[in-house]
């Protein structure tokens, strides 16, 4: 079954399965919940059912599943946020492979929404309907979101699935045109089961990572992988407030030289969580100000020098 590997989301599975069994399929769905709790997995499973409906017992369901996983089914379009690089769109994964420096987050662009319209302008080739999945729908700028509204009003023989962290992250006019499916954070036993099955059981021995993940196995894996990119010597130094102004300035220099901008922002999340659990809540505001300045592209070394000096004084 398509949802066999989706753990900890019984309500979502029930609602989606019922829609197929009763043939009450909405033109658009909004999968809302934290990243990494199974929304993408559910979207792929639901797409598999939609592309074989009204005959879910498809004779080539294994082949169909592989084609969906590989993204080469002619009636499925998966849209993910992109960067613009040298006049072309590249995904976050492609940007990482190309070594493109990331100064902002990727977004779902207007031209991608126009691609959706062109995709849906033709009838399905193999199935009774087309399926469009839009990942990180909250990243759409206003022009793209307004363009999507027109498609949601007349999707034709298609079902759209939007993935977003919350209903508040999207325009109310988009939310009102979708059936909402909520995805919950996982409890501790289920989180442990998912991580173990995924081959990441070592994360269960990392309390800092689990605290950051807050019940999301996908986020736990991302945080763990991010942690591995920081040199151990630097990580050890930054885990405790600097003891002198000289130490603060030296640590600021190391952070600015060694870590890229996205990793520096992640480090702020890590330090906020760590200091909170240490009872040093007074430091959190200084770190939040550092995050704001880094996102405004203030010179990183200067940001860290000021922040670590404040942390030294506050600790």
TrEMBL record:
Q: Which domain of life is it from?
A: Bacteria
Q: What is its EC number?
A: 2.7.7.7
- Which GO biological process entries does UniProt record here? DNA-templated DNA replication
Is this entry keyworded Lipid biosynthesis? no
Q: Which UniProt keywords apply?
A: Nucleotidyltransferase, Transferase
The kind of enzyme this is, by top-level EC class, is transferase
Q: Keyword Transferase on this protein?
A: yes
Pfam families for the chain: DNA_pol3_delta2
Q: What is this protein called?
A: DNA polymerase III subunit delta
Its taxonomic placement starts with: Bacteria, Bacillati, Cyanobacteriota, Cyanophyceae, Oculatellales
């Amino acid at each position: 079954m398509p949802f066999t590997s989706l753990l900890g989301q019984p309500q979502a599975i029930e609602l989606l399965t019922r829609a197929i069994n009763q043939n009450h399929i909405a033109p658009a769905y909004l999968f809302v919940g934290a990243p990494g709790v199974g929304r993408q997995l559910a979207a792929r499973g639901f797409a598999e059912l939609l592309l074989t409906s009204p005959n879910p017992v498809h004779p080539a369901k294994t082949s169909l599943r592989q084609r969906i996983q590989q993204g080469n089914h002619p009636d499925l379009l998966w849209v993910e946020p992109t960067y613009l690089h040298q006049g072309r769109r590249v995904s976050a994964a492609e940007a990482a492979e190309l070594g493109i420096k990331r100064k902002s987050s990727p977004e779902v662009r207007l031209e991608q929404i126009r691609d959706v319209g062109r995709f849906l302008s033709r009838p399905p080739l193999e199935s009774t309907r087309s399926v469009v999945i839009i990942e990180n729908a909250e990243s759409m700028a206003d022009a793209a979101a307004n363009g999507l509204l027109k498609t949601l009003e007349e999707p034709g023989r298609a079902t759209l699935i939007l993935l977003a962290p919350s209903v508040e992250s999207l325009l109310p006019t988009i939310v009102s045109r979708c059936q909402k499916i909520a995805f919950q954070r996982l409890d501790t036993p289920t989180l442990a089961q998912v991580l173990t099955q995924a081959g990441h059981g070592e994360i269960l021995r990392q309390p800092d990572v689990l605290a950051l993940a807050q019940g999301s196995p996908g986020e736990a894996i991302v945080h763990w992988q991010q942690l591995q990119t920081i040199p151990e010597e630097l990580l050890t130094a930054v885990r405790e407030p600097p003891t002198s102004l000289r130490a603060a300035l030296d640590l600021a220099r190391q952070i600015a030289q060694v870590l890229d901008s996205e990793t520096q922002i992640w480090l702020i999340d890590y330090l906020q969580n760590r200091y909170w659990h240490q009872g040093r809540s007074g430091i959190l505001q200084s770190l939040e100000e550092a995050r704001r300045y880094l996102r405004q592209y203030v010179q990183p070394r200067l940001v860290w020098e000021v922040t670590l000096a404040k942390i030294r004084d506050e600790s």
